[in-house]
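Usage

Read records sequentially. Each one opens with the input sequence:
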Amino acid sequence: MGAPSAGVSELQFGAQGLGSKFWTLIAATFLAFLGIGTVLPGMALHVVHDLGGTDQTVGFVIGTFSAVALVSRFISGPLADKKGRKLAFLTGLASCGAAGLAYLSPLGLTGAYLGRSLQGFGEACLYTGAAAWAVEAAGIHRSGRALGFVSTGIWGGISAGPVIGQFLGTFERAAALQVIAAAAAFLLLSRVEENYTPHPAEGPRIWLPKSMIYPGLAVGFNSVQYPIVAGFLILHLAQHGGGGPIAFSAYASMVLLSRFFLGGLPDRLRPSVTYYLGMAGMAVGTAIIAFTPGPIASIAGAAILGLGFSFPWSSVASVVLRGTPSHRHGSAIGVLSAFYDLFVGLSSFLAGILANHFGYQSAFLLALGGVFAAVAVGKLVFVSPAK
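and closes with the structure output:
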């Protein structure tokens, strides 16, 4: 099937709905991120104990993933648009499998850096391919629901992966499982037929269209809280009655469940409504964590934060994809993801400085500031009543 016009493409994809092709994409996404997650628990110990690195080396090795992923977003989007969503997805899976082999190689720290680089490039390609393909397979009018299920596959794999990696006992076994999971996803996806014809080139490519700046900023400010919760929630609550691991589990579980069961709300309600409801939940949850001591309140706050965090991404992405020709969906998703990566990296760095000088509460105040900034930028994204 070609893409002569957005209307024809949407009609054809929409007729397919959430069928076997769609669920195969979600299963492949889950397997890919399951493999990525398996190596996370043992990475730091592997770098220090097995490879002779320092704590600083650990930071550089882990940070390599984000840096490469950020740059790769501007490669994966055009790849998905010019060569097809399937090729982008398969390229990402192959790169993630190669990352596992790099971890198992006798290259020492070079292998660790190479593995993280391959994994960053692979994650960028497979997510762009998966998200664009899933939206088109489900139909553009189900974009919120489709993206919710893609996120469920990601969060499910990232959540289960570390548990399995810890159970395997060694980093080498976890890396081997990453290779196996990527290979299984590759074989599974190879059986899925893609009917996609690239659109003819329309002049020079604009890497950052002006129309993507406000949506990108909305996604970016919304993501400020994520590295803060991941890095400082447990430490912050240890000073205020404990309950940190349970609070983080409540946060992650709420994100996973709400994206699975409620991911279609931006399709049934105006995306602006779900966006601001999500931001309200994030503001309330972050404020509870920052200002209310005690494990019970903090666990409740983390759950509310996770519920709120489930909606802004799909709300913004739905508006962007509905206003973007289908042959540019991959590039649009790549740009939004690049903003996410950029803000996660910057906020992680800034939160560390604030926490070191002013305590963990200051990091959550930064997260709250990100929420308010996202609310302000949202007014520039959802500018018409239909949005």
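Summary fields computed downstream for this record:
- The first helix runs from residue 6 to 16.
- The radius of gyration is 20 Å.
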